[in-house]
Automatic annotation (TrEMBL):
CDD domains: ABC_TM1139_LivF_branched
Name listed for the protein in its UniProt record: Branched-chain amino acid transport system ATP-binding protein
Domain ABC transporter: 4-236
Sample GO molecular function, one term: branched-chain amino acid transmembrane transporter activity
Organism of derivation: Nonomuraea jiangxiensis
Record's keyword terms, sorted: Amino-acid transport, ATP-binding, Nucleotide-binding, Transport
Family stated for the protein in its record: Belongs to the ABC transporter superfamily.
Keyword Cell inner membrane: no
Keyword Nucleotide-binding attached: yes
Length: 238
């Protein structure tokens, strides 16, 4: 069963078109990696899927057509977007940030239980609940951003460069947690990531973008074994 279906998606900024007829399908409970060089349109793709920019084409989530809906409407449909740079509310406390993540839910039942669930994935946040988000380390801020997104109980989690600015050890731990979230909650994940090794290590499928077009698609194993991808993004020859 497909969670996300994208057909002939075009998007851009003003008169500048960035995406040119993107089409992809992500199965329920899968992790999909989006790879490509800087300027390929990866961030624009996630912004189009979450309604942050206007786009043309067809986007369906669980069979529901989402074309033309606002970001808050898409969030209520089950799309959570963790943007590049994390997007946490720095003056607010960790707890306030987490509770804001539940604003799209129709009821408040279970919010406290969900905060405890987030603590299970990110134990360090439990000890930081009364701290301002701006006082956290970069890795802790990324954990908070993902935790806040999970508070909406999303069907689809969009992650834009989650490893940006993080130490390798923190990055590996973060990807391990994303994989655990996917496995335990069956949350579908689309991750844009420059660290292709890590992204392909947790993904079931991947797509390579260049100049706003998908130029290569396949399973993570197929993409990892492709000589062009290996040389361009993984640093070795097949």
């Amino acid at each position: 069963m497909s969670t996300l279906e994208v057909e002939d998606l075009t998007a851009g900024y003003g008169d500048a078109r960035v995406l040119h007829g993107i089409g992809l399908t992500v199965g329920e409970g899968e992790i999909c990696a989006i790879l490509g060089p800087n300027g390929a349109g990866k961030t624009t793709l996630l912004r189009a899927l979450s309604g942050m920019i206007k786009a043309r084409g067809r986007v369906r989530l669980g069979g529901t057509d989402l074309a033309g809906r606002s970001p808050d409407a898409l969030a209520r449909q089950g799309i959570a977007h963790v943007p590049e740079g994390r997007g946490t509310f720095m003056p607010l406390t960790v707890e306030e940030n987490l509770r804001l993540g539940a604003f799209v839910r129709r009821g408040r039942d279970g919010v406290n239980a969900d905060i405890e669930r987030i603590h299970g994935y990110f134990p360090v946040l439990k000890d930081r609940m009364k701290q301002a988000a701006g006082s956290l380390s970069g890795g802790e801020q990324q954990m908070l951003a993902i935790g806040r997104a999970l508070m909406s109980r999303p069907r689809l989690l969009l992650l834009d460069e989650p490893s940006l600015g993080l130490a390798p050890l923190v990055t590996r731990e973060l990807f391990r947690i994303v994989q655990a979230i996917n496995a335990e909650e069956q949350t579908t994940v689309v991750v844009v990531e420059q660290n292709a090794h890590l992204a392909l290590g947790i993904a079931q499928q991947a797509h390579v973008l260049e100049t706003g077009r998908i130029v290569l698609s396949g399973t993570a194993e197929q993409i990892r074994a492709d000589e062009q991808v290996a040389q361009s993004y993984l640093g070795y020859r097949v």
